[in-house]
Specification:
mainly alpha, hpI Integrase, Chain A, 3 domains, three-stranded antiparallel sheet, 13 helices, DNA integration, chromosome partition, Integrase_catalytic, Tyrosine_recombinase_XerCD, DNA recombination
Length: 314
């Protein structure tokens, strides 16, 4: 069987299970192009290793490719299309995992101010789009993909509720928004309606000047411009710089800090935060809670109050 045909059969199999399988399918097709038009049994282990390794240092992409191909070859072996897997037997030591950047309130304000740097005559709404998007990400903790998938009809701004349809794990959820964020969304959607609406009310909420959906890669590029204009960066030796996705982590950490300061029962509220963020379980939410000096300080104060002996008066 030709490698390409087997890959397409496997992709159809994953789709039949109800999975979107978009990024994995794209990676598998890229793998087939790299291997060439050959039979499945003709694949050479050294060619597979070259595809997985790519160029440059070993990163998390190495493991991602390895796991995608691992599932593909388990499918192929289980159905008798190949007898053995050509994947390497050992996984190299990976660099430390990426640590989210937790923005301070001052840095968030600087990011919002720096959206003015995106002003352009060709797309006059561009600064307002980024400004409102950043507010939404921080105010709701939404994933960037969820925000970019919102349509105008998904935003019930009268009730202050957003319907997230393109959520992870195929889940739809309702996301309430506060009054201040609601006003900002009200203002933006009035301006957005002056742009083309190619699908009517089903048109994308955040759009290009022609009314089309914004692409994640483009948003990433524009955010880097905004971040540089706001003079926000890690130390020069860092492997990566603050990302737009880190705003989601920031929203979670700031919410926990606010609960600590208000004297709330954080452990009881964590499951509610997990639901709000669209996490499957509380463990996923706990991974978002990077320990910052501010969070550690508030937790320490809580522990001190708990551990301090009760003072009894005669």
């Amino acid at each position: 069987m030709r490698l390409h045909d087997l890959a397409e059969a496997y992709i159809d199999y994953e789709h039949a299970l109800g999975l979107r399988f978009r990024s994995d399918a794209k990676e598998l097709r890229s793998y087939c192009r790299a291997m060439g038009d050959i039979a499945t049994e003709e694949v050479k282990p050294e060619a597979v290793l070259a595809f997985i390794a790519g160029r440059g240092p070993v990163t998390a992409r190495w493991v991602q490719k390895y796991r995608i191909l691992g599932r593909f070859y388990r499918y192929a072996i289980g159905r008798g299309f190949v007898s053995t897997s050509p994947l390497p037997n050992q996984i190299p030591k990976l660099p430390p995992p990426l640590i989210p950047y937790i923005y301070s309130v001052d840095e968030l304000q600087r990011l919002l101010t720096a959206t003015n740097s995106l002003q352009t005559p060709q797309s006059p709404l561009q600064p307002a789009t980024m400004y409102t998007l950043l507010l939404l990400l921080y105010g709701t903790g939404m994933r960037i993909g969820e925000a970019l998938s919102l349509t105008i009809q998904d935003a019930d701004l009268q009730s202050r509720v957003l319907t997230v349809r393109n959520a992870k794990f195929f889940k739809m959820r309702l996301v309430p928004v506060g009054p201040r964020l609601g006003l900002a969304l009200d203002d933006y959607v009035l301006r957005r309606r002056r742009l083309p609406l190619p699908a009517g009310e089903a048109s994308t909420f955040f759009a290009t000047h022609r009314g089309h959906r914004l692409q994640y890669t483009w948003i990433g590029q524009q955010f880097r411009r905004v971040r540089k204009a706001a003079n926000i960066s890690r130390e020069s030796s860092a492997r990566y710089q603050p990302r737009i996705h880190d705003i989601r982590h920031t929203a979670a950490v700031h919410r926990i800090i606010a609960w600590y300061r208000a004297g709330a029962d954080v452990q009881r509220l964590l499951p509610q935060l997990a639901t709000y963020l669209g996490h499957v379980d509380i463990g996923s939410t706990q991974q978002y809670l990077s320990i910052t000096a501010e969070l550690l300080h508030e937790a320490s104060l809580r522990f001190e109050r708990y551990a301090q002996p009760e003072v009894r008066h005669a």
